[in-house]
Design brief:
3-stranded mixed β-sheet; 9-stranded mixed β-sheet; 20% strand
Length: 346
């Protein structure tokens, strides 16, 4: 079985110099290939790869196709049984890939997995983008085992068991190549943000599992391309969340969920406005406007998803509002939400 570890790079020369040597050191397996796909970087990334890492395969693009489009184009050119989508700002650890490969080999019904993601700067804390596995609530708000909104937990081994999750983070995701292609890969039109959640939703609705395998550990810097309060990031997150809901929700939940989401979005826009983040407020409104413009073009994708879905109900979707529980019921951690208990009760 061949595995391709694929780093999608865009002006990441600093991270390539810092983390690629560690990846090469700790991924010395004859059945694993390391590939860097470059989204038309304008820095010295290609010179660094050519001079310092001549054994690493490179794939060059003519422009920046974003996270989704870049990975789709790269993976089309790679023959492997498993793909690992790895951010350039991730530090892997000794034998990091072995538990992932072993788990995928032993669980043929699993489409995608992720390791435990810890913070590069706060080594004992979970990292925002993925932590120990991702979930969404009934309105599409994402959260993780180890991170709910801005509250990030210290890793005390509380999420060290292998667990079924809703989404695996694009920061470090191993995916079964055949299933990645079968469900259509990442959605190019998302460009970046929430594309991995959309992908995992398609896996889940078609009866495949997505899991967290915390026996593998990596450290993630996060925010390497766009920081958390960048207005463009705000725009992509809000727009893509709406597109994701439209593509994947069953008919009986679609309109009611989108109506509720409208209220959440306008409250978020008001909060941005009242705190002086006027560009972010504008981004939320623009995201909603553009979603309605794009919605007709996504009808075919929605119909395809509904056609191939084998179930309407996905157990890993939290059937409450995580926003309400976090801000009003003061449930700040994954454990306090009671999801694991509900799993045991089923």
């Amino acid at each position: 079985m061949i595995t391709a570890v694929v780093i999608l790079n865009w002006n990441g020369e600093k991270y390539l110099q810092q983390f690629l040597p560690i990846l090469l050191k700790y991924t010395q397996r004859p059945d694993v290939e390391i590939v860097v796909a470059d989204n038309a970087s304008t820095d010295n990334s290609m010179e660094i790869l050519k001079n310092n890492f001549p054994t690493v395969r490179t794939i060059l693009f003519d422009k920046n196709y974003g996270f989704a489009g870049g990975y789709n184009k790269a993976l089309e050119q790679i023959e492997a049984d498993y793909f690992v989508l790895l951010n350039s700002d991730v530090e892997v650890t000794v034998n990091w890939i072995d538990p992932l490969l072993e788990f995928m080999e032993n669980n043929q019904d699993v489409a995608a997995i992720q390791p435990k993601i810890l913070s590069y700067f706060k080594r004992k804390s979970f990292e925002h983008a993925g932590a120990s596995g991702g979930f969404i609530d009934k309105y599409g708000f994402p959260f993780c085992r180890g991170r709910v909104f801005g509250t990030t937990e210290t890793d005390k081994g509380q999420y060290d068991e292998v667990s079924d999750i809703f989404w695996a983070t694009g920061a470090c995701m191993m995916v079964r190549a055949s299933l990645f292609k079968k469900v259509g890969g990442l959605d190019d039109e998302f460009f970046a943000h929430m594309e991995e959640i959309d992908l995992c939703w398609r896996f889940k609705s078609r009866g495949y599992r997505v899991c967290s395998v915390p026996q593998s550990v990596v450290y993630h810097i996060g925010g390497g391309t766009l920081n958390a309060e960048n207005p463009h990031k705000t725009y992509l997150n809000f727009r893509n969340n709406l597109l994701m809901l439209y593509k994947n929700l069953p008919n009986n939940l679609l309109e009611s969920t989108l109506s509720s989401k409208m209220i959440f979005d306008y409250v978020a826009a008001l909060q941005f406005f009242l705190t002086g983040k006027f560009k972010n407020a504008h981004s939320v409104i623009k995201a909603r406007t553009d979603f309605f413009k794009m919605r007709p073009d996504f009808e075919e994708k929605r119909n395809e998803n509904l056609l191939y879905a084998t179930k309407d109900s996905v157990p890993e979707i939290y059937q409450r509002s995580v926003v309400y529980d976090y801000y009003f019921r003061r449930k700040k951690t994954y454990t306090s939400l009671g999801i694991e208990q509900k799993k045991q009760d089923r």
